[in-house]
Amino acid sequence: MPSLRTFDAFPKTEQQHVKKSSKGGLTSIVIYLFLLFIAWSEFGSYFGGYIDEQYIVDDEIRTTAQINMNIYVKMPCKYLEVTARDQTGDLQIVSERLNFQDIHFRVPYGTKMTEFNDVISPDLDDILADAIPAQFTSDMPELPMIEGINFDGCSIYGSVPVNKVSGELQITAKGWTYMSTRRTPFSVLNFSHVINELSFGDFFPYIDNTLDGVGRIADEPLKAYYYFTSVLPTAYKKMGAEVHTNQYSVDAIEKSSSSHALGPTGITISYNFEALKVIIKDERIGFTQFIVRLVAILSFVVYLASLAFRFTDWTLVNLLGSKWSLRYESDKSYSKGLLE
Known about the structure:
Helix 2 runs antiparallel to helix 4. The strands form two sheets. Strands 1, 3, 4, 7, 10, 11, 12 and 13 form an eight-stranded mixed β-sheet that branches. The chain has a five-stranded antiparallel β-sheet with strand order 5-6-2-8-9, with no helix packed on it. By secondary structure, the chain is α+β, with helices and mostly antiparallel strands. The protein has two domains: 21-49 and 285-320; 54-117 and 149-283, Acid-sensing ion channels like fold (Sandwich), CATH 2.60.470. The protein has helices spanning 2-5, 22-48, 124-130, 287-320, and strands at 50-57, 64-73, 80-86, 91-93, 99-103, 153-163, 167-173, 193-200, 214-216, 224-238, 241-255, 266-273, 276-283. The chain starts with a helix and ends in a 20-residue tail after the last helix. Strand 3 and strand 4 form a beta hairpin. It is found in: Endoplasmic reticulum membrane; Endoplasmic reticulum-Golgi intermediate compartment membrane; Golgi apparatus membrane; Membrane. It comes from Eremothecium cymbalariae (strain CBS 270.75 / DBVPG 7215 / KCTC 17166 / NRRL Y-17582). It is a multi-pass membrane protein. Its main location: endoplasmic reticulum.
C-alpha cells in the first residue's frame, strides 16, 4: 500500500531539482500589464457605449413639413415671387410667408460655386451640441439707403410649411411664369444666387446641410437652375436627449434660354420625402453581459499567451538548447566530476 500511495502515472521533476527562469516571470508581468490594458479598454467601452444605426420604415404620420431657406438672388425683391407646388396639384404663393430684403448682392467667402457639400451623417455628439432650435425673425432692421451702393440683390429668408409629399419650390420673376399684373423687365433678369440655408423640418442654424454655402453665377438672363433633393428623416438619441433632423442628397441641372423642357426660368428646388427613417442612437450593453464578455476576453488572451509561451519555449529548447529555455534554467553552480 505505501508503494501504491507513492505511485505516479505521470512522474514529475522534484522541485529541488528544478530552477525556474527569471525570463518566465518577466513574461508574466508583460501579460498582466496587457490584461490590465484590455480590462481598462473594455471598461471605457462599457461606460462610453457604442453608436447603433438603424434603418426603419417611417411610421410617423405628418401631413405637413417645413422648408427653411435663406437665399441671395441677384435681382431686386420687387421682381421676385416664390411659389410651392406639389403632386396633389396644390399651388401656394408663399411669398407672403417669407421675408424679402433688398441687399447689395455679394458672394460670401468660402461659397462653393462648382460643387456641393458632402452628404455625411454628423457625429452624434456634434449634432446634440449644434441642435439649437431657432426661427427666422421678420423684424430685421431696414438697411439705410447709402449713396453709391446699388441694392441689386434680394435676400429671401424664412420658413414655409408645405404638404409632406413630393413637390417643388420655385423662385421666379414676376410675369414670366405665372400671370401677373407686372412683368419683370428683361434687362434685370439674373438668377445668380447663393444658398446660405436650405433645410427641412425644425430649423437648426448651426447644422450644416448639403446645399448650405452653395452658389451659382448666371451667364445669361434666361438661366434656369434645378435642384432635386431626396429628404431622409434622421433621429439622434443619447441618454434621454432626442433630436429629429432631415438629411438630404441633391442632384442639379442648369438650363439655358435655348431649352426649357424642365420648366420655367428661375430657381427650382424639387423635394421628395423618403419612406425610410434613420435612427442613430447611443447604446450600452447590460452589466451582466459586460462581465461575461470581459471574463471571456481575458481568459482567451491568457490561453493564447500560454500557448505562445509554451511553443516559443519548445522551439528555443529544440533549436538552441536547454540553456535558452524560458521556463527553466540549468543549474551551473555544480562542480564537474572526475570523469567529466
